[in-house]
Design brief:
By secondary structure, the chain is an alpha/beta fold. The protein has one domain: TIM Barrel. Helix content is about 40%, strand content about 20%. The protein contains 8 helices and 8 strands. The chain has an 8-stranded parallel beta barrel, surrounded by 5 helices. Strand 6, helix 5 and strand 7 form a beta-alpha-beta unit.
Length: about 220
C-alpha cells in the first residue's frame, strides 16, 4: 500500500494548525518535517520546523518523520529524539566517513527512533548499499534538496528501480520514499518503480481539496 508523507515546508505559519488538521482528516500517513540549517542547503528552517513539530505533537497522533538537511546531524538528531518523533532521516552526503554514518545510525536507533538515509539526485544509489541492513527507510531526492515546488528529475525513476531490485534480491525490509516534484502523475511513475512512500508538499498544499488529492496519490 502506498503511504503519503505531507511536507509542511510551503504552508504559512498562521495557517499551521488548520492545515495540519485538514491533512490529517484527508488521510496523511506522516507529517514530513524539512529541517534545513542554512549550511548544508541555502535555506534555514530550523525555528519554524521546531514550532511545527511542537504543534503537531499537541494536536495529533499522526507520526512525524524528520528530514535533516543539515551539517551537524548529531545535534539535530538529539533535539528531535527529545521531541519523540517516529523517524529521523539524514543525508549520506552530510557525513564524511562510513564510520561516522554507522555511529549516527546506531545512536538514533538506540533511542527508539526509526532511521533513514537520504540521497541527492547526483549521488549514485549504490553509495547506500553498505548501510541497507541498518535502515528502516531510504529517501530518494527527486529534486535538489533545499526548496519546495521544484520539477521532478526524471532520472530518479531509474535509481528507484535499481534500489528496489537490490533490496528485493537481498531480502531487506526497507521503505523506499521519494521526495520532490511528486504529483498524481509522477506518483504513479515512482510507485511502479518500487517506491511505497510519497513525500508531497506543493501538490497537496496548493490543492483545493486535500482529500481528493490524497486519494489520487494513494
Amino acid at each position: 500500500m502506498v503511504e503519503v508523507a505531507t511536507s509542511l515546508l510551503s504552508i504559512k505559519e498562521q495557517d499551521c494548525v488548520q492545515t495540519i488538521y485538514n491533512l490529517e482528516v484527508a488521510g496523511a500517513n506522516y507529517f514530513h518535517i524539512d529541517v534545513m540549517d542554512g549550511k548544508f542547503v541555502k535555506n534555514d528552517t530550523t525555528e519554524i520546523m521546531r514550532k511545527y513539530t511542537e504543534t503537531i505533537k499537541q494536536i495529533t497522533s499522526t507520526p512525524i518523520e524528520v528530514h535533516l538537511m543539515v551539517e551537524d546531524v548529531e545535534a539535530y538528531s538529539k533535539a528531535y529524539i527529545d521531541m519523540q518523533v517516529k523517524t529521523i532521516i539524514f543525508h549520506i552526503e552530510s557525513i564524511k566517513s562510513e564510520k561516522e554514518i554507522m555511529k549516527l545510525l546506531s545512536y538514533i536507533k538506540e533511542n527508539n527512533v526509526q532511521v533513514g538515509l537520504s540521497i541527492n539526485p547526483n549521488t549514485e544509489i549504490e553509495k547506500l548499499y553498505p548501510y541497507l541492513p541498518y535502515l528502516h527507510r531510504i529517501l530518494v531526492m527527486s529534486v535538489e534538496p533545499g526548496k519546495g515546488g521544484q520539477k521532478f528529475i526524471e532520472t530518479s525513476t531509474e535509481k528507484i528501480k535499481r534500489l528496489s531490485r537490490f533490496i528485493y534480491e537481498n531480502g531487506y525490509d526497507i521503505d523506499i520514499e521519494v521526495d520532490g516534484g511528486i504529483n498524481d502523475k509522477t506518483a504513479k511513475e515512482v510507485v511502479d518503480a518500487g517506491a511505497n512512500i510519497l513525500v508531497v508538499g506543493s501538490y497537496m498544499i496548493n490543492s483545493s481539496n486535500y482529500k481528493e488529492a490524497m486519494q489520487k496519490l494513494k
